Predict the 3D structure of the following.
Amino acid sequence: MKLKCVIFDFDGTLFDSMYLWDTVAESYVRSRGKEPKPTVREEVRTLSLLQAAEHLKKEYDLAETPEEIMAGIDRIIEHFYRDEVQPKPGVVPFLKELRAKGVDVCIATATDRYLIESALRRCGIENLFDAIFTCSEVGHGKDEPVIFRRAMEHFGAQRGSTVVFEDAIHAIETAKKDGFTVAAVFDESEKRQDEVRALADCYITSFEQLEQFWAMTAAD
């Protein structure tokens, strides 16, 4: 394929950040002097932020209102993106190589723009991306292909010249069903690795080992 456009997910794909989302409820509970139950991750995994705040207030008898709990969780998340999160090994050289080849590079993420931009600025790599697309701004989650289409169309690319990098099975399924070529990136937060490997066009365990990706994009 003649590669024109690469669309990267952020959390779990480019950056090693998924553990924050798995542990933020625990971190907040501990910040209030309580010990979280071993089941707290699963209890809040599918809840909205407001629902999670209400659950934590009731479960741990917290003095804060749900709104104050949400604000506290937001502060933990903001601190992480502003001061801690790092790209996965090999990501920065790969991005530079794509740019050197004239490939358009963007991010398509469910995370808020200001968090992504703060992480990119701190790491000094904001100039390696041509655009950022967020689910909230597009108005659709990754259970629909709208964000991938929007990114591709922004660069005037076609599906045959575009690769989507994702770590999560639901996003991989969405992109594949819509006809995109998908490079799956291993992240330990995604437990369905056999399905990920079977569904994707190539499977990347490390950005320091990209032979399969380059072979795929070199093929006619």
About this structure: The chain has a mean pLDDT of 94.
